[in-house]
Every structure is written in structure tokens, then in C-alpha cells.
Amino acid sequence: GLLNATEVDFWRSTIDRAVLMRGRSKFAAQTDMEDTTNEDFDYFDRVFTQRVNLWMDSDHMRQMLVDELGSVIGSLARELSRTRRGYRLWHDQALYKEPYANPTSWHVDVPYWSFNSTEATSAWIALDDANETNGISAHGLRRAPAQSTLSPD
Asked: Is the pTM of this model over 0.85?
């Protein structure tokens, strides 16, 4: 796998500490809890507990993302994109699916990004196993059909 069991435990505890430090704010230095740009805020606020850019207020997250991410995910991203250039971390995002949360609909994240690039790489790393017993349901996490492709054509 991408991370061994020790690394997964380290990442999980580092992220959990950073989320606890952040408190209820989705973003660093956020004062207003409601996303006034989203008319469906109440629904989507109950899909995931979400914290963005934890590196901004957690030294441990910053170290993990620069040191750990640079060697693990950065290397993989460069290999997949066949580039020798470096990469830019757009943001980190911790997502927690709480019990009885609203369903997560099938979606693609790219249209919601604040930039447009065919060279962007997104990495989603599950730090807990998800199965039928602990929460996957008909509305839960599902894999895209094998023939699914995302291209500008």
C-alpha cells in the first residue's frame, strides 16, 4: 500500500490532533461558521465534518505535509504525471463521515476547484477501513464504474 500501518497511525493521530485544535472552524481564521455562498449549506454541512488547510495552524500537519507528503504522495504524483518538476500543494482537507450523516452523492471535485489545469493531481487517502458493518450503505462510499473516465472531450 501507499502507507504502512505505522504511517497510517501517525497520519491519523496527527490529523485528529489538528482537527481538535481547529475546533468548529472549517477554515483557518474563520469567524463565520456558515457558508453563505452555498444555498444548500444546511444539508452539505451534515454530509462530512470537514477541515481545510490544517497546515496553516498546526506545526505537526505542516511537517507531515512537507516532509511526509513530499516523499510519499509527491513522489507518486510526479510518477503518475511523468514529470520531474515539483508539485504545489493546493490544500489539505480532512473529511470525517459521522454516524447518521447525510448521504454523500456521487460527484466529481474538479469543477469546484478554484483553478483549471489538466496537470492537477488529487489524492484521497482513507485512514480508516470502511465496510458494510461500520457505515457503508446504499448511499455511502462506492467505486466508480470501471468504464468511467474524466476527460475534456
From this structure: no
